[in-house]
Amino acid sequence: MAVDSSRRTQHFKARTRVVVAGRDPAAQHGFVNMPAFRGSTVVYPTMDDLTHRRGRFSYGTRGTPTTEALESAWSDIAGAAGTVLVPSGLAACALALMSCLKAGDHLLVTDSVYRPTRNFCNSVLARFGVETTYYDPLIGSGIADLMKPNTKVVFTEAPGSQTFEVQDIPALSEAARARGAALIMDNTWATPFFFPPHERGVDIAVEAGTKYLGGHSDLLLGLVSANEQYWRRVRDTFDAMAMCVGPEDVYLALRGLRTMRLRLDEQERAGIEMARFLETCPEVKKVLHPALPSFEGHAIWKRDFLGASGLFSVVLHPVPQMAVAAMLDGLELFAMGYSWGGFESLIVPFDCKDYRTATKFDPGGPCLRLQIGLEDTEDLKADLEKGFARMKAAKAA
Ligand SMILES: *Cc1c(COP(=O)(O)O)cnc(C)c1O
After folding, report:
1. Per-residue pLDDT, 4
2. How many whole angstroms separate alpha carbon 392 and alpha carbon 220?
3. How many structural domains are present in the chain?
4. Domain check: are 139 and 215 in the same one?
5. Residue 161, Cα to own-chain centre: how many angstroms?
6. So what's the pLDDT on residue 266?
Protein backbone atom coordinates (compact mmCIF):
# COMPACT_ATOMS: atom_id res chain seq x y z
CA MET A 1 0.00 0.00 0.00
CA ALA A 2 3.03 2.22 -0.21
CA VAL A 3 2.98 5.41 -2.19
CA ASP A 4 5.49 5.08 -4.95
CA SER A 5 7.92 7.85 -4.08
CA SER A 6 9.12 7.84 -7.68
CA ARG A 7 5.64 9.11 -8.58
CA ARG A 8 6.70 12.72 -8.49
CA THR A 9 4.34 15.53 -9.24
CA GLN A 10 6.80 18.18 -10.34
CA HIS A 11 4.89 18.84 -13.54
CA PHE A 12 1.91 20.18 -11.56
CA LYS A 13 1.60 23.64 -10.10
CA ALA A 14 2.19 24.09 -6.35
CA ARG A 15 -1.51 24.25 -5.47
CA THR A 16 -2.17 20.97 -7.26
CA ARG A 17 0.86 19.27 -5.73
CA VAL A 18 -0.35 19.66 -2.14
CA VAL A 19 -3.54 17.88 -3.14
CA VAL A 20 -2.02 14.93 -5.00
CA ALA A 21 1.44 14.43 -3.43
CA GLY A 22 1.96 11.36 -1.22
CA ARG A 23 -1.41 9.86 -2.09
CA ASP A 24 -2.38 6.99 -4.35
CA PRO A 25 -6.04 5.91 -3.96
CA ALA A 26 -5.59 2.99 -6.38
CA ALA A 27 -3.05 1.52 -3.94
CA GLN A 28 -5.29 2.33 -0.92
CA HIS A 29 -8.32 0.20 -1.91
CA GLY A 30 -9.77 3.34 -3.47
CA PHE A 31 -9.85 5.33 -0.26
CA VAL A 32 -8.80 8.94 -0.73
CA ASN A 33 -6.44 9.18 2.26
CA MET A 34 -3.47 7.07 3.25
CA PRO A 35 -4.46 5.37 6.53
CA ALA A 36 -2.45 5.56 9.76
CA PHE A 37 -0.37 2.38 9.81
CA ARG A 38 0.55 1.29 13.32
CA GLY A 39 3.32 -1.19 13.71
CA SER A 40 6.63 -2.29 15.11
CA THR A 41 7.17 -5.75 13.59
CA VAL A 42 7.21 -6.29 9.85
CA VAL A 43 7.02 -9.98 8.98
CA TYR A 44 8.85 -11.74 6.14
CA PRO A 45 7.51 -14.70 4.16
CA THR A 46 10.76 -16.69 4.01
CA MET A 47 14.02 -16.97 5.91
CA ASP A 48 15.83 -15.77 2.84
CA ASP A 49 13.69 -12.61 2.68
CA LEU A 50 14.31 -12.01 6.41
CA THR A 51 18.06 -12.51 6.09
CA HIS A 52 18.27 -10.04 3.24
CA ARG A 53 15.64 -7.69 4.71
CA ARG A 54 13.85 -7.96 1.41
CA GLY A 55 10.73 -5.84 1.12
CA ARG A 56 9.78 -2.23 1.18
CA PHE A 57 9.61 -1.87 4.97
CA SER A 58 11.72 -3.60 7.60
CA TYR A 59 10.74 -2.27 11.02
CA GLY A 60 8.37 0.36 12.42
CA THR A 61 11.09 2.82 13.46
CA ARG A 62 12.46 2.88 9.91
CA GLY A 63 9.21 3.94 8.31
CA THR A 64 5.71 2.86 7.39
CA PRO A 65 3.53 3.57 4.35
CA THR A 66 2.08 6.49 6.36
CA THR A 67 5.41 8.12 7.17
CA GLU A 68 6.64 7.49 3.65
CA ALA A 69 3.57 9.23 2.21
CA LEU A 70 4.31 12.43 4.13
CA GLU A 71 8.05 12.21 3.48
CA SER A 72 7.59 11.83 -0.24
CA ALA A 73 4.97 14.59 -0.40
CA TRP A 74 7.24 16.96 1.49
CA SER A 75 10.28 16.16 -0.67
CA ASP A 76 8.12 16.87 -3.65
CA ILE A 77 6.95 20.25 -2.33
CA ALA A 78 10.34 21.30 -0.93
CA GLY A 79 12.28 20.13 -4.00
CA ALA A 80 14.41 17.82 -1.85
CA ALA A 81 16.20 14.53 -2.46
CA GLY A 82 14.62 13.17 0.71
CA THR A 83 12.84 14.03 3.96
CA VAL A 84 12.67 12.47 7.43
CA LEU A 85 10.00 13.09 10.08
CA VAL A 86 10.88 13.66 13.73
CA PRO A 87 8.72 14.32 16.82
CA SER A 88 9.10 18.13 16.98
CA GLY A 89 10.53 21.14 15.20
CA LEU A 90 13.30 21.38 17.76
CA ALA A 91 14.19 17.71 17.20
CA ALA A 92 14.42 18.56 13.48
CA CYS A 93 16.95 21.34 14.22
CA ALA A 94 18.93 18.93 16.41
CA LEU A 95 18.90 16.13 13.83
CA ALA A 96 20.02 18.46 11.03
CA LEU A 97 22.95 19.68 13.14
CA MET A 98 23.92 16.20 14.34
CA SER A 99 23.94 14.98 10.74
CA CYS A 100 26.80 17.34 9.89
CA LEU A 101 28.90 17.86 13.03
CA LYS A 102 31.45 15.96 15.09
CA ALA A 103 33.80 16.77 17.99
CA GLY A 104 36.28 19.49 17.06
CA ASP A 105 34.03 21.16 14.49
CA HIS A 106 32.97 24.79 14.45
CA LEU A 107 29.43 26.00 13.82
CA LEU A 108 28.07 29.43 12.82
CA VAL A 109 24.54 30.23 14.00
CA THR A 110 22.45 33.33 13.40
CA ASP A 111 22.00 35.50 16.50
CA SER A 112 18.28 35.69 15.65
CA VAL A 113 17.83 31.91 15.91
CA TYR A 114 14.86 30.27 17.65
CA ARG A 115 15.97 30.32 21.27
CA PRO A 116 15.72 26.57 22.02
CA THR A 117 18.04 25.92 19.03
CA ARG A 118 20.57 28.26 20.67
CA ASN A 119 20.18 26.27 23.87
CA PHE A 120 20.82 22.99 22.01
CA CYS A 121 24.05 24.39 20.56
CA ASN A 122 25.21 25.84 23.88
CA SER A 123 24.43 22.71 25.90
CA VAL A 124 24.44 19.39 24.00
CA LEU A 125 26.67 20.39 21.06
CA ALA A 126 29.13 22.12 23.40
CA ARG A 127 29.28 18.95 25.53
CA PHE A 128 30.04 16.94 22.39
CA GLY A 129 32.96 19.23 21.55
CA VAL A 130 31.36 21.48 18.92
CA GLU A 131 32.12 25.20 19.18
CA THR A 132 29.37 27.69 18.22
CA THR A 133 29.84 31.31 17.10
CA TYR A 134 26.77 33.50 16.66
CA TYR A 135 26.64 35.91 13.72
CA ASP A 136 24.73 39.08 12.90
CA PRO A 137 21.70 38.03 10.79
CA LEU A 138 22.39 40.92 8.40
CA ILE A 139 25.99 39.85 7.75
CA GLY A 140 25.37 38.52 4.20
CA SER A 141 28.56 37.56 2.35
CA GLY A 142 30.57 38.91 5.31
CA ILE A 143 29.99 35.47 6.85
CA ALA A 144 33.14 34.38 4.99
CA ASP A 145 35.24 36.36 7.50
CA LEU A 146 33.85 34.28 10.39
CA MET A 147 34.61 30.94 8.79
CA LYS A 148 37.45 28.88 10.20
CA PRO A 149 39.14 25.86 8.64
CA ASN A 150 36.94 23.62 10.86
CA THR A 151 33.63 25.42 10.18
CA LYS A 152 31.31 22.66 9.00
CA VAL A 153 27.88 24.27 9.27
CA VAL A 154 26.21 27.65 8.84
CA PHE A 155 22.81 27.50 10.57
CA THR A 156 20.38 30.17 9.46
CA GLU A 157 16.78 31.02 10.11
CA ALA A 158 15.02 33.64 7.99
CA PRO A 159 13.28 35.75 8.90
CA GLY A 160 14.69 35.77 12.44
CA SER A 161 12.65 34.43 15.33
CA GLN A 162 10.64 37.27 16.89
CA THR A 163 12.56 40.10 15.18
CA PHE A 164 12.20 39.07 11.51
CA GLU A 165 15.61 40.05 10.13
CA VAL A 166 15.68 38.83 6.52
CA GLN A 167 18.91 37.09 5.61
CA ASP A 168 20.62 36.91 2.27
CA ILE A 169 20.41 33.14 1.86
CA PRO A 170 22.04 32.93 -1.62
CA ALA A 171 25.04 34.89 -0.26
CA LEU A 172 25.32 32.63 2.79
CA SER A 173 25.03 29.58 0.55
CA GLU A 174 27.80 30.78 -1.73
CA ALA A 175 30.15 31.47 1.19
CA ALA A 176 29.37 28.12 2.85
CA ARG A 177 29.89 26.18 -0.38
CA ALA A 178 33.20 27.89 -1.09
CA ARG A 179 34.47 26.48 2.24
CA GLY A 180 32.79 23.08 2.02
CA ALA A 181 30.38 23.84 4.89
CA ALA A 182 26.70 22.87 4.92
CA LEU A 183 24.01 25.54 4.95
CA ILE A 184 21.15 24.49 7.23
CA MET A 185 18.05 26.67 7.31
CA ASP A 186 15.13 26.70 9.71
CA ASN A 187 12.42 27.52 7.15
CA THR A 188 9.43 27.27 9.48
CA TRP A 189 8.15 30.83 8.86
CA ALA A 190 8.03 30.82 5.06
CA THR A 191 7.55 27.06 4.54
CA PRO A 192 8.64 25.64 1.14
CA PHE A 193 5.61 27.36 -0.42
CA PHE A 194 7.01 30.81 0.20
CA PHE A 195 10.71 29.93 0.18
CA PRO A 196 11.83 26.91 -1.87
CA PRO A 197 14.91 26.18 0.24
CA HIS A 198 16.97 23.80 -1.87
CA GLU A 199 16.45 25.86 -5.02
CA ARG A 200 17.95 28.83 -3.15
CA GLY A 201 21.09 26.99 -2.10
CA VAL A 202 20.08 25.49 1.26
CA ASP A 203 21.58 22.01 1.84
CA ILE A 204 19.36 20.91 4.73
CA ALA A 205 16.02 22.58 5.53
CA VAL A 206 14.14 22.25 8.78
CA GLU A 207 10.44 22.82 9.24
CA ALA A 208 8.47 22.77 12.47
CA GLY A 209 5.42 20.90 11.12
CA THR A 210 3.83 21.80 14.45
CA LYS A 211 3.11 25.22 12.91
CA TYR A 212 1.50 25.60 9.47
CA LEU A 213 1.59 21.96 8.36
CA GLY A 214 -0.41 20.80 11.38
CA GLY A 215 -2.30 24.07 11.26
CA HIS A 216 -4.67 23.26 14.12
CA SER A 217 -2.48 23.49 17.26
CA ASP A 218 -3.07 19.81 17.94
CA LEU A 219 0.16 18.08 16.98
CA LEU A 220 3.96 18.24 17.26
CA LEU A 221 6.15 17.29 14.31
CA GLY A 222 9.40 18.24 12.60
CA LEU A 223 10.63 17.68 9.05
CA VAL A 224 14.21 17.61 7.81
CA SER A 225 14.70 17.72 4.04
CA ALA A 226 18.02 17.58 2.24
CA ASN A 227 19.52 17.95 -1.20
CA GLU A 228 21.36 15.09 -2.97
CA GLN A 229 24.67 15.91 -1.32
CA TYR A 230 23.43 15.77 2.26
CA TRP A 231 20.48 13.37 2.09
CA ARG A 232 22.40 10.18 2.89
CA ARG A 233 23.89 11.50 6.10
CA VAL A 234 20.56 12.90 7.30
CA ARG A 235 18.87 9.55 6.67
CA ASP A 236 21.71 7.58 8.31
CA THR A 237 21.71 9.84 11.38
CA PHE A 238 17.94 9.47 11.66
CA ASP A 239 18.17 5.67 11.37
CA ALA A 240 20.92 5.56 14.00
CA MET A 241 18.66 7.27 16.54
CA ALA A 242 15.14 6.19 15.49
CA MET A 243 13.67 9.57 16.47
CA CYS A 244 10.41 8.50 14.86
CA VAL A 245 6.89 9.97 14.98
CA GLY A 246 3.68 8.20 16.00
CA PRO A 247 1.22 7.32 13.21
CA GLU A 248 -1.65 9.56 14.36
CA ASP A 249 0.51 12.68 14.22
CA VAL A 250 1.75 11.79 10.74
CA TYR A 251 -1.83 11.16 9.65
CA LEU A 252 -2.93 14.56 11.01
CA ALA A 253 0.01 16.24 9.28
CA LEU A 254 -0.97 14.65 5.95
CA ARG A 255 -4.49 15.93 6.50
CA GLY A 256 -3.15 19.40 7.34
CA LEU A 257 -1.02 19.38 4.19
CA ARG A 258 -4.09 19.33 1.93
CA THR A 259 -5.29 22.73 3.18
CA MET A 260 -1.90 24.19 4.07
CA ARG A 261 -1.54 26.29 0.93
CA LEU A 262 -5.05 27.65 1.28
CA ARG A 263 -4.51 28.57 4.93
CA LEU A 264 -1.14 30.15 4.19
CA ASP A 265 -2.56 32.30 1.41
CA GLU A 266 -5.27 33.56 3.74
CA GLN A 267 -2.90 34.07 6.66
CA GLU A 268 -0.54 35.99 4.37
CA ARG A 269 -3.36 38.26 3.24
CA ALA A 270 -4.76 38.79 6.73
CA GLY A 271 -1.26 39.19 8.22
CA ILE A 272 -0.36 41.98 5.80
CA GLU A 273 -3.71 43.67 6.40
CA MET A 274 -3.17 43.55 10.18
CA ALA A 275 0.44 44.74 9.85
CA ARG A 276 -0.70 47.75 7.76
CA PHE A 277 -3.42 48.48 10.29
CA LEU A 278 -0.91 48.40 13.14
CA GLU A 279 1.33 50.83 11.24
CA THR A 280 -1.49 53.36 11.54
CA CYS A 281 -1.97 52.89 15.31
CA PRO A 282 -0.39 55.76 17.31
CA GLU A 283 0.72 53.34 20.06
CA VAL A 284 2.91 51.44 17.57
CA LYS A 285 6.43 52.65 16.93
CA LYS A 286 7.41 50.11 14.31
CA VAL A 287 6.00 47.01 12.60
CA LEU A 288 8.46 44.19 11.91
CA HIS A 289 6.96 42.46 8.87
CA PRO A 290 9.12 41.54 5.84
CA ALA A 291 6.31 42.28 3.34
CA LEU A 292 6.02 45.93 4.41
CA PRO A 293 8.09 48.31 2.24
CA SER A 294 9.02 50.20 5.44
CA PHE A 295 10.83 47.13 6.82
CA GLU A 296 14.60 46.97 6.58
CA GLY A 297 14.77 43.51 5.01
CA HIS A 298 11.96 44.12 2.53
CA ALA A 299 14.13 44.25 -0.64
CA ILE A 300 15.78 40.90 0.04
CA TRP A 301 12.45 39.37 1.04
CA LYS A 302 10.97 40.54 -2.26
CA ARG A 303 13.90 39.18 -4.23
CA ASP A 304 14.01 35.70 -2.63
CA PHE A 305 10.65 34.91 -1.02
CA LEU A 306 7.38 34.07 -2.77
CA GLY A 307 5.14 35.16 0.07
CA ALA A 308 4.80 35.94 3.77
CA SER A 309 3.11 33.92 6.46
CA GLY A 310 0.91 35.36 9.20
CA LEU A 311 3.50 35.89 11.93
CA PHE A 312 5.12 39.27 12.64
CA SER A 313 6.02 41.62 15.48
CA VAL A 314 5.46 45.20 16.58
CA VAL A 315 7.50 47.56 18.72
CA LEU A 316 5.36 49.86 20.89
CA HIS A 317 6.22 53.36 22.00
CA PRO A 318 7.57 53.15 25.57
CA VAL A 319 4.88 52.38 28.16
CA PRO A 320 5.15 50.76 31.61
CA GLN A 321 4.94 46.98 31.80
CA MET A 322 1.60 47.17 33.63
CA ALA A 323 0.09 49.11 30.71
CA VAL A 324 1.14 46.34 28.31
CA ALA A 325 -0.41 43.83 30.72
CA ALA A 326 -3.66 45.85 30.78
CA MET A 327 -3.79 45.59 26.99
CA LEU A 328 -3.01 41.86 26.77
CA ASP A 329 -4.99 40.61 29.77
CA GLY A 330 -8.34 41.72 28.38
CA LEU A 331 -8.03 40.56 24.77
CA GLU A 332 -11.00 38.55 23.58
CA LEU A 333 -9.66 36.93 20.41
CA PHE A 334 -5.86 37.10 20.64
CA ALA A 335 -4.81 34.43 23.14
CA MET A 336 -1.45 34.51 24.88
CA GLY A 337 0.66 31.44 24.27
CA TYR A 338 3.69 30.05 22.47
CA SER A 339 3.85 28.31 19.13
CA TRP A 340 1.84 29.52 16.10
CA GLY A 341 0.61 28.44 12.67
CA GLY A 342 -2.83 27.35 13.87
CA PHE A 343 -6.25 28.71 12.93
CA GLU A 344 -6.41 30.97 16.00
CA SER A 345 -4.75 34.33 16.60
CA LEU A 346 -2.07 34.61 19.27
CA ILE A 347 -0.02 37.37 20.88
CA VAL A 348 3.08 37.22 23.10
CA PRO A 349 5.36 39.90 24.54
CA PHE A 350 9.10 39.27 24.02
CA ASP A 351 12.48 40.75 24.76
CA CYS A 352 15.71 39.38 23.25
CA LYS A 353 17.94 41.82 25.11
CA ASP A 354 19.32 39.32 27.61
CA TYR A 355 20.42 36.49 25.37
CA ARG A 356 21.64 37.82 22.03
CA THR A 357 25.41 37.82 21.90
CA ALA A 358 26.54 38.92 18.42
CA THR A 359 24.17 41.88 18.09
CA LYS A 360 22.60 44.38 20.45
CA PHE A 361 18.82 44.25 20.67
CA ASP A 362 17.49 47.69 21.49
CA PRO A 363 14.10 48.31 19.87
CA GLY A 364 13.22 51.32 22.06
CA GLY A 365 9.92 50.03 23.43
CA PRO A 366 8.02 46.90 24.44
CA CYS A 367 7.71 44.23 21.74
CA LEU A 368 4.80 41.97 20.84
CA ARG A 369 4.70 39.06 18.42
CA LEU A 370 1.39 38.39 16.67
CA GLN A 371 0.17 35.28 14.88
CA ILE A 372 -2.83 36.07 12.70
CA GLY A 373 -5.34 33.24 12.52
CA LEU A 374 -8.40 32.73 10.37
CA GLU A 375 -10.81 35.06 12.21
CA ASP A 376 -12.36 38.09 10.46
CA THR A 377 -9.75 40.87 10.43
CA GLU A 378 -12.35 43.49 11.45
CA ASP A 379 -12.91 41.59 14.70
CA LEU A 380 -9.16 41.28 15.22
CA LYS A 381 -8.63 45.01 14.69
CA ALA A 382 -11.42 45.86 17.14
CA ASP A 383 -9.86 43.51 19.72
CA LEU A 384 -6.50 45.31 19.42
CA GLU A 385 -8.10 48.78 19.44
CA LYS A 386 -9.88 48.00 22.69
CA GLY A 387 -6.59 46.68 24.03
CA PHE A 388 -4.81 49.94 23.14
CA ALA A 389 -7.57 51.87 24.91
CA ARG A 390 -7.00 49.79 28.07
CA MET A 391 -3.27 50.40 27.73
CA LYS A 392 -3.80 54.14 27.52
CA ALA A 393 -6.17 54.18 30.52
CA ALA A 394 -3.72 52.12 32.62
CA LYS A 395 -0.86 54.44 31.70
CA ALA A 396 -2.89 57.55 32.67
CA ALA A 397 -4.07 56.06 35.98
C1 LIG B 1 8.28 26.48 16.90
C2 LIG B 1 9.57 26.52 16.20
C3 LIG B 1 10.45 25.45 16.27
C4 LIG B 1 10.20 24.24 17.14
O5 LIG B 1 9.05 23.54 16.84
P6 LIG B 1 8.42 22.56 17.96
O7 LIG B 1 7.67 21.57 17.17
O8 LIG B 1 7.58 23.43 18.82
O9 LIG B 1 9.58 21.96 18.70
C10 LIG B 1 11.63 25.52 15.56
N11 LIG B 1 11.93 26.60 14.83
C12 LIG B 1 11.10 27.65 14.75
C13 LIG B 1 11.48 28.81 13.90
C14 LIG B 1 9.90 27.65 15.43
O15 LIG B 1 9.10 28.71 15.38
Report:
1. 52
2. 38
3. 2
4. yes
5. 10
6. 98
Does residue 210's CB lie within 6 angstroms of at least one atom of ligand 1? yes
Same domain for 309 and 221, yes or no, is no
Measured in Å, residue 259 CA sits from the centre of ligand 1 at 20
Report how far ligand 1's centroid is from the alpha carbon of 89 (Å): 4
- CA separation (Å) from 151 to 60, 103, 112, 140, 201? 36, 12, 19, 17, 18
pLDDT at residue number 198: 98
Residue 2 confidence (pLDDT) above 60: no
**Could you tell me the distance, in angstroms and rounded to a whole number, from the CA of residue 219 to the centre of ligand 1?**
12
Q: Is the CB of 125 under 6 A from ligand 1?
A: no
Q: Treating both helix axes as pointing N-terminal to C-terminal, what angle do 228-241 and 89-98 enclose, rounded to 10 degrees? A: 110
Residue 44 lies in domain: 14-256
Which CATH number do you get for residue 134? 3.40.640.10
Domain identity same for 95 and 189: yes
66-116 pLDDT tens trace: 999 999 999 999 999 999 999 999 999 999 999 999 999 999 999 999 999
Whether 89 is in the pocket of ligand 1, judged by its Cβ within 6 Å, is: yes
Structure confidence at residue 113 (pLDDT): 97
Residue of 188, 216, 249, 369 with the most ligand 1 atoms within 8 Å of its CB, for mutation: 188
- 90 pocket-lining for ligand 1 (C-beta < 6 Å): yes
pLDDT at 10: 75
Other CB atoms within a 10 A radius of the CB of residue 130 amount to 22
